[in-house]
Write a structure and sequence with these properties.
Main location: membrane
Helix content: 40-55%
Number of strands: 17
Domain Histidine kinase: 182-398
Domain Response regulatory: 8-129, 417-533
CATH architecture of the domain at 248-395: 2-Layer Sandwich
Distance between the termini: 92 Å
Shape: elongated
CATH class of the domain at 248-395: Alpha Beta
Structural class: alpha/beta
Number of helices: 14
Largest sheet: 5 strands, parallel
CATH superfamily of the domain at 248-395: Histidine kinase-like ATPase, C-terminal domain
Strand content: 15-25%
Coiled coil: 128-172
GO molecular function: phosphorelay sensor kinase activity
Length: 539
């Protein structure tokens, strides 16, 4: 038990002899009863002592010159801190009833008459000393209890916080586990189709039509795998702030219109009523990323809308924003899911056998890309089976007059001669066959040093260079080609699996003209080759 300070007794008497007699009498029991005795010669002196100390009891002489005992008692009890100190009046004569009443009105708890009987004094003082010690002990226990309560409250808050954090981590881990299971499902499906189609091509007796269908399956499923990888990489870049936007003034309505035409041309919207209402609205944005946003929103509507449903795509200007809205009549979004639809890996359905498919990262990517453009994306739904609406808002800019592009000019010698530098045997063979199929004259090399020799010997118009080459990498190949007067005018296109902004910077610093991320879509590759062939050589 913590140590309790000794209670204090104050003796107030203007007579020195009486004061000495009382203090001496009390002092002989002080050690036994564990208290201290203090003395005061006047009412003013008593008030000073009360300001400095707390007392278990005050023995106060009634008849004192100047400030008598009643006035002193009144002044002591007028102060909040000393209002409850018990006072025993000491008087040399028997007090009549009026004096007793006056004393009690001024806070007296008892009277002692002189000459004081020691046993009576001891009995009275011992009671108040014991009471003071008990009160002090209770106060300390109350303080300890309050401190303990504070500690327990803090501990409870910490435990509650830790429980919530643990639950959050468990939810995140569960979401990640579901995502990995979904990723395995989404990767195995196209890989299975590709493997089966490749095996079918090699079987004897397969018709030409069967071979063509197998080839289309391989191409379609390879593109699907590429989109999955692109989505994963794009989300990673977006979350880490490493997406580099190539921003130009553009009319959002035209971009959205072109995207919808692609859906119609490829037959992806055949089973739906696809309605568009597109008003012009100019923004400063990256056309590739904005097309990605639009496609993800439309894909989401198609994915969660049964065949025969209606999908409305609108663009308009509203104050300082250009707005894109995609509304569907599909399954809708549950109220508990609505606040989380843009969180990573969240989907309306998590079963592996669901018809919709997908990794649950498309809307997360949409939100991040919108934020990178200085815009926002919001979702709204009235509940299950009541459809949903996604609304994109982007900062509006003034209308831009676009100069007509110059007509493409073709070289008089036909298609450019192409050098392919690629260390992967299968990739090199397939790319060469594909380019030959499109009418290009192709020379291939398996590493960087062989590529440099081929460039001097073959003198191509354009080189496709893999970055991760053995011996010397693609960066060094580009630097050496640019440093040699015989090869410095070759157009250089980097082929790499690295697509971060830092990778693009390194590619351009090494001397490349363009940067393509594997797997490369054949139409995109043909467009880039054609564009590079039409650009004048570097000075």
């Amino acid at each position: 038990m913590p140590k309790i300070d000794k209670p204090k007794i104050l003796v107030v008497n203007d007579d020195a002899n009486s004061l000495f007699a009382l203090t001496s009498l009390l002092a002989q029991w002080a050690e036994q009863e564990c208290y201290e005795v203090l003395a005061a010669r006047s009412g003013q002196d008593a008030l000073r002592q009360v300001l400095m100390h707390d007392f278990a009891v005050i023995l106060l002489d009634v008849n004192m010159p100047g400030m008598d005992g009643f006035e002193t008692a009144e002044a002591i009890h007028a102060r909040a801190r000393s209002a409850d100190i018990p006072i025993i009046f000491i008087t040399a004569f028997l007090a009549d009833e009026l004096d007793r009443l006056k004393a009690y009105q001024h806070g007296a708890v008892d009277f002692l008459f002189t000459p004081v009987i020691p046993q009576v004094l001891y009995a009275k003082v011992a009671v108040f000393v014991a009471l003071a010690m008990k009160n002090e002990e209770l106060k300390k226990q109350a303080r300890q209890l309050s401190q303990r309560t504070t500690e327990l409250t803090a501990t409870n808050q910490r435990l509650t916080r830790e429980i919530e954090e643990r639950k959050s981590m468990e939810r995140q881990n569960h979401a990640k586990d579901e995502f990995l299971a979904m990723l395995g499902h989404e990767l195995r499906n196209p890989l299975s189709a590709i493997s089966s189609a490749a095996s079918l091509i090699g079987l004897p007796g397969v018709s030409a039509d069967g071979v063509q269908r197998a080839k289309k399956i391989i191409q379609r499923q390879s593109q699907h795998l590429g989109r999955i990888v692109d989505d994963l990489l794009d989300l990673s870049r977006a979350m880490s702030g490493k997406i580099l936007l190539n921003r130009l003034p553009l009319d959002l309505s035209k971009l959205v219109g072109a995207t919808l035409e692609t859906y119609r041309a490829t037959g992806r919207s055949t089973d739906y009523e696809l309605v568009q209402d597109l008003d012009a609205g100019w923004i400063d944005g990256d056309s590739t990323r904005l097309e990605q946003i639009t496609s993800n929103l439309i894909d989401n509507a198609l994915k969660y809308t049964p065949a025969g449903g209606r999908i409305e795509v609108r663009t308009w200007t509203e104050n300082d924003d250009v707005v894109l809205s995609v509304r569907d009549t599909g399954v809708g979004i549950a109220a508990e899911l609505l606040p989380h639809v843009f969180d990573v890996f969240v989907q309306g359905s998590s079963t592996l056998d669901r018809s919709q498919g997908g990794l649950g990262i498309g809307l997360s990517l949409v939100r991040r890309l919108a934020e990178l453009h200085g815009g926002s994306i919001a979702a709204d739904s009235q509940g299950d089976n009541r459809g949903s609406t996604f609304t994109l808002r982007l900062p509006r800019i003034e209308h831009q007059v676009v100069a007509p592009s110059a007509p493409a000019s073709h070289g008089e010698h036909g298609k450019p001669r192409v050098l392919l530098i690629e260390d992967n045997d299968d990739g090199r063979e397939m790319m060469s066959m594909m380019l030959n199929g499109y009418g290009y004259d192709v020379e291939a090399a398996a590493d960087g040093l062989l590529g440099l020799s081929a460039a001097l010997r073959y003198q191509p118009d354009l080189a496709l260079v893999d970055i991760g080459l053995p011996g010397i990498d693609g960066y060094e190949v580009a630097r050496r080609l640019r440093a040699d007067p015989a090869t410095r005018d070759i157009k250089l296109i980097a082929l790499t699996g690295y697509g971060l902004a830092e990778d693009l910077r390194r590619v351009m610093e090494a001397g490349f003209d363009r940067h393509l991320v594997k797997p490369v879509d054949i139409d995109q590759l043909m467009e880039v080759i054609d564009t590079c062939a039409r650009v004048p050589v570097r000075e």
